[in-house]
Structures are given as C-alpha cells and as structure tokens.
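User: Quick sanity check before I run a bigger batch. Here is a single chain. Can you write out its predicted 3D structure?
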Amino acid sequence: MCNNLKNKLLGTISRDPFEPIWGLVQMSEPLELVVTALKNESHVILEIMSGAPSLKDMKRIQRHMIAFFLTFCPLRSSHWSSMTYIDGLTGHLRKVLDGYEILIPTNEFKNGRSIEVNYKKKLIPYHVRSQSLSSFKQIIQLYLEKYLPLLKSVNTENLLFPNMKGGRIAPGSEIREWVERSLLNVCAARGIEDVYGFGCHAFRHLGAMSILKQTGSMQKAADYLLDDLTTLQKYYVKYLTNEYLNKLIEEHIDHLYK
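Assistant: Done. Predicted structure follows.
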C-alpha cells in the first residue's frame, strides 16, 4: 500500500525548478538562511533610511522589502510589479491598527476562480502585524513616508514599487540582484552550495517545502500557495526525503481512516 501511494505522490515533473535553490531545499528549514540574510540586512537598511532619502538607496530598499514580503506572501512576480499604495486605505497595501496588510482580489490570481470557489473569498489578505516583524514595519513606514514620495510626479499608477521612471519594475530581476548581493554570502558562510540567482517564484517553493517539512501537511502547504493538492503532489513531494514523505503518507492514512 505504502509503495503504491508513494509512487502516486511522487508523480512526474517535466523540469527542475528547484535547481537554483537546491542547497536551501535540503535544509530542515529551507527559509532559514533567507531570513538570516534579511535580518542582517535590516539593520543596514534602517541605518540608511535614517538619513536623507535618495533614488539610489530606494532601489536597494525595494529589493529588501520585496524579498521580506516574499517569505510570507507567496505571490507571483506580476503581483509585485502591479502592487499599489494610494492613501493607506485603498490600493493593495493598506495601513491597519497594528501594522499593514496586503489585499489581493482573487481575480488577480492566475487561478482566481478556483481560489474564490475553494476559499469563499474575493480578497486574499496577507498581514504584517506580528511583533516579530517590528523592524520590517518600521522599514515599510519610512519607505512610504520618505522614499515613495520621491517619484510621486511620475508614479501615475500609484505603484508601491515603481522603477526610477515611475513605471513597473521587473521583480524577478530585482530579487535575483538581492540574492546575489545579500543571500549568497550568508550561504557561503554556512557552507551551503548549489544556490544561485533565483527569482520570486522560488520563494513559493521554499515556503511550501518549509511547511511540508515542519508540519508534514500537504493541505497546509496547498493552502499557503492557494493551490490544490494535485499541484503539491506533482511538484513538491518528489523532493522530500523518505522521513518527510512518510509523514505525508501517515497523514493520508489518518485522513482516510479517521
């Protein structure tokens, strides 16, 4: 029974999207070094933001913010390029009492119709409220108050992350730049190889693998990605060791015979 189920779970995959992040995927917590790099960089970013704002610094801050968001907002590149901030009450990023939240209409997701049906929501919220994110909330506030106004005259779409001409950025390129400038040295210090420039979508893989390894739950990983179990089985289970795969098999059995 277990062998048949294992074969079914493993499925097939036509390409290997995990290749650029293989060194991280093999860790017990795939996002650990990403978070370490972000924490290290946060101190530098806050020091930069304490001075006079400049467009040169703004680009580095944008990269840091997108990378930080991606650790718990597994959105696609298109979401970040079109994300808006208007007055704190409308747009995608909004101010709330104890921080910020991002609200994405389901019709802006590639699989929006199925998300709306499965989750009974027209808006998907991502919260930035936790006390553990206090430094990041400070960075968001300073960015909105000091840096975003620098491009107000050309930012006609009210973009949260405009490029230096007020148009839409290429988030994948910005994240690859962040990886090369901020993450790779952290990986090298820990002796982690097989990591090289990757874009926004890789954060979805890292987040899903983190949840699978920490909880052994395919459903929780699917909910995190706003995707279905078939996708998880096809693209993620293949990369789990037998230890983690056995957890998923046990979860499946428990579900059948509960």
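The first strand starts at residue 93 and ends at 96.

User: Great, the batch can go ahead then.
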